[in-house]
């Protein structure tokens, strides 16, 4: 290729350029995620102590499973960016990662269908299903690596060139240290191994699987990482009642239904090959069982929809419209244009204005606690645990959340307090809880107001603080 032709191809926007850029800017905004401060706190602890901790040390309730921190590298990255550049760098990282997810999925669709509107519409559904997880938490890296692995495996299959498999073991080294979702990578490679046995082209995928397995050893826990599937399944039964670890609670269900319908229609139109069947079966069941897996199912559905030719179902005027619109953009890479325009537009956003949104946290209540310094353990709702650790550790530990210190007993005790049962007093006594911080509208708050054992010492629109009456008298003295 001549230099002039190469230059033109490099700076001419491709069809994927504009929608990818739109995704990037649509996701710029203040940091508003309850898990982010927990991960930021862990990153701070690791950097300052040069130690990856057993995360159970931050809780005072007993745990039945060792607290491995499988997301330690994500947390270090978050804290390093936050402490050196400020919140805007986290916003940039998250938006750039989401744009990367969009890009790799678009490339999968583009291999057999270059119709921009159709591809973008499919990916909008995928992003709708994934939106709760396209935020400031390590899971976003698993979504990116899932898209990347699927795209590279698909490229190898379509082209027959094994060079696309070479990066996968090296990417696995990163993935295993960024987020425990690395198991998805092995599921994907394994499916490509099994589905290519018949045509005897499975060997490159098998070698990729083996080298990726070896790459797993490059992590702080060495060979103990192989126990993760067992530990995960063991803890899964405990976490079923906790938020996103359970079944549908909100907007994810409609998107799950839409994605399922698109896949089923594709199956009806064209008989699925073994790859598509296995991908659909595994990730459909995973999404059905756990709401946090809906995003993975949606990402995997892109390959299924493309592979089975859903676009070919569009006939007549709709397809003609797609064909005419598709002539607007030339199928060049546009790498240089993408980078330059993205940086220019991002810098024009005044990134220093981005911040961590704290309006949903008990900010003033925590300042009050720092002032009076009551003794004993603190109880609060799970979503505030990261903020409380960020502000109050090591003076105070927290009760429980889905990221650490979980056991059947601690989960049961947590809901005994959040949805007060007959044993709520006993739970507080057994855990030496002397300080409670909750939103004013929680049922436990109403019970505490009706008892003489607890006194409200602070209240605002976000939170209310209760102290045990004997502790309150001690503080006053």
Descriptive notes:
The chain is mainly alpha-helical and 477 residues long. Helices cover 58% and strands 4% of the residues. It contains 22 helices and 4 strands. The chain has helices at residues 3-11, 17-26, 36-49, 72-84, 87-110, 116-130, 139-159, 167-178, 183-195, 203-215, 228-239, 252-269, 274-289, 294-307, 316-326, 335-347, 363-372, 385-392, 408-418, 424-430, 443-449, 469-476; strands at residues 377-380, 433-438, 454-459, 464-468. A 4-stranded mixed beta sheet has the order 1-2-4-3. Strand 3 (454-459) and strand 4 form a beta hairpin. Helix 2 runs antiparallel to helix 5, helix 3 runs parallel beside helix 18 (385-392) and helix 4 crosses helix 5 (87-110). The chain is elongated, with a radius of gyration of 25 Å. The model is unreliable at 6-13 and 325-334 (pLDDT under 50).
Beginning-to-end CA distance, first to last residue: 84 Å
* Helix run count: 22
Could you state the order of secondary-structure elements as H and E? HHHHHHHHHHHHHHHHHEHHHEHEEH
Describe the sheet with the most strands: 4 strands, mixed
Number of strands: 4
Structural class: mainly alpha
Bin the strand percentage.
under 5%
Please give the order of strands in the largest beta sheet. 1-2-4-3
Low-confidence stretches: 6-13, 325-334
Q: How big is the Rg?
A: 25 Å
Mean pLDDT: 81
Helix content: 55-70%
Shape: elongated
Short description:
With 477 residues, this protein is mainly alpha-helical. 58% of the residues lie in helices and 4% in strands. Strands 1-2-4-3 form a four-stranded mixed sheet.
């Amino acid at each position: 290729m001549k230099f002039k032709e190469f230059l033109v191809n490099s700076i001419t926007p491709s069809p994927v350029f504009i929608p990818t850029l739109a995704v990037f800017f649509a996701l710029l905004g203040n940091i508003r995620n309850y898990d982010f401060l927990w991960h930021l706190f862990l990153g701070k602890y690791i950097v300052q102590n040069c130690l990856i901790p057993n995360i159970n040390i931050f809780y005072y309730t007993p745990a039945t499973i060792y607290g491995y921190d499988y997301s330690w590298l994500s947390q270090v990255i978050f804290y390093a960016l936050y402490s050196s550049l400020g919140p805007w760098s986290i916003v940039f990282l998250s938006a750039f990662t989401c744009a990367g997810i969009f890009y790799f999925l678009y490339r999968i669709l583009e291999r057999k269908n270059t119709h921009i509107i159709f591809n973008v519409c499919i990916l909008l559904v995928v992003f709708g299903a994934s939106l709760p997880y396209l935020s400031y938490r390590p899971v976003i890296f698993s979504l990116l690596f899932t898209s990347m692995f699927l795209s590279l495996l698909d490229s190898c299959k379509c082209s027959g060139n094994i060079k696309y498999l070479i990066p996968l073991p090296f990417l696995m080294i990163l993935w295993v240290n960024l987020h425990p979702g690395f198991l998805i990578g092995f599921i994907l490679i394994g499916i490509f191994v099994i589905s290519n046995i018949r045509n005897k082209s499975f060997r490159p995928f098998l070698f990729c699987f083996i080298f990726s397995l070896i790459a797993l050893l490059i992590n702080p826990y060495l060979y103990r990482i192989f126990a993760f599937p067992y530990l995960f399944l063991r803890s899964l039964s405990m976490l079923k009642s906790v938020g996103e670890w359970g079944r549908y609670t909100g907007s994810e269900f409609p998107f799950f239904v839409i994605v399922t319908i698109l896949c089923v229609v594709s199956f009806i139109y064209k008989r699925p090959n073994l790859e598509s069947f296995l991908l659909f079966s595994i990730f459909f069941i995973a999404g059905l069982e756990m709401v946090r897996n809906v995003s993975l199912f949606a990402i995997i559905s892109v390959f299924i929809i493309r592979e089975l030719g859903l676009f070919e179902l569009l006939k007549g005027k709709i397809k003609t419209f797609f064909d005419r619109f598709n002539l607007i953009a030339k199928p060049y890479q546009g790498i240089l244009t993408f980078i330059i325009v993205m940086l220019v537009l991002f810098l024009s956003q005044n990134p220093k204005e981005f911040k961590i949104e704290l309006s949903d946290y008990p900010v003033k209540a925590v300042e009050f606690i720092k002032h009076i310094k009551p003794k004993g353990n603190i109880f609060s709702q799970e979503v505030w645990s990261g903020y409380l650790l960020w502000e109050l550790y090591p003076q105070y530990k927290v009760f429980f959340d889905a990221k650490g210190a979980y056991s059947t007993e601690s989960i049961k005790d947590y809901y005994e307090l959040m949805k007060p049962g007959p044993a709520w007093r006993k739970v507080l006594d057994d855990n030496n809880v002397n300080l409670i911080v909750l939103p004013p509208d929680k049922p436990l708050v109403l019970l505490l107001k009706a008892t003489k054992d607890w006194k409200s010492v602070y209240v605002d629109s976000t939170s209310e603080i209760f102290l045990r009456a004997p502790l309150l008298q001690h503080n006053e003295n």
